[in-house]
Design goal:
The chain is built from 16 helices and no strands. The chain has about 260 residues and is mainly α. It is elongated and about 65 Å long.
Length: about 260
Amino acid sequence: LDFGGIAAIVEVGDNILADVNRCGSVQKESLTVLQFTVLALWLMSYTEGNISNARATLESSSETAIHYLVNILRFPQTEELSSLHDMNVKCLWSFCMDSLNCRVAVECGAVDALRHVQVEKMVAASGLIQVLLRDPEAFESVTQKAGENILEDMMLFMVSSKIAELESYGSLSCARTAMKERGRRFIYESNGVELLLELLRTTTHTKTQVHAGQALLNLSLSDFVQEKLGRIGLYTLIEVSWSPTCEEVKQIVSGIMHNI
């Protein structure tokens, strides 16, 4: 399908959205149609020509397919709409692999909408935000409004979320961030060392403990973190080394102790 197909799908979806906004609720039939439109756009996003079509404006309004998808992001994060939101994020993710689409999505308010998703959907939301921030212009626009550390703030929130999947993903993100000096400084100044130590000590999930340990290992490359770990984390590290969830954690803790 060419732009005419995308325009037709978005027009149908926009009419449903207008009805939903008037009624204040989503009927089952309307939800089915919305799911169909998002799924159709998602499938079309894999055709190269449709990447640019997604940001072309409709004749009847200034709306684009990207606008439409961002408008759905703003829908209430309810269980009833969960599958719609899942498909919508994946669809936007696919279209926004293109830099120009990233800019349109950011201008439409995609990042602000993603910051208010349900806690359980933060992994997908943070992944899409990372895609959006790959474009320099989109990155500058976002950081002017939300600050340079938007992803890092989400990352530390996930570490302290008490939800296993988020704790694991957040600590893995910390490990990646801590590979650079700037990242280590941010985590240190944001009480991330304390959060990771607590997670390392309390989690019963092997993957999460491995990721928390890897984050602390990378952090321990810096002198200022070594000092803090030696001051507040030595007992935790020794305790975990006695009863780790797996052998890999024991080796990681040994590496941290060596750096200290």
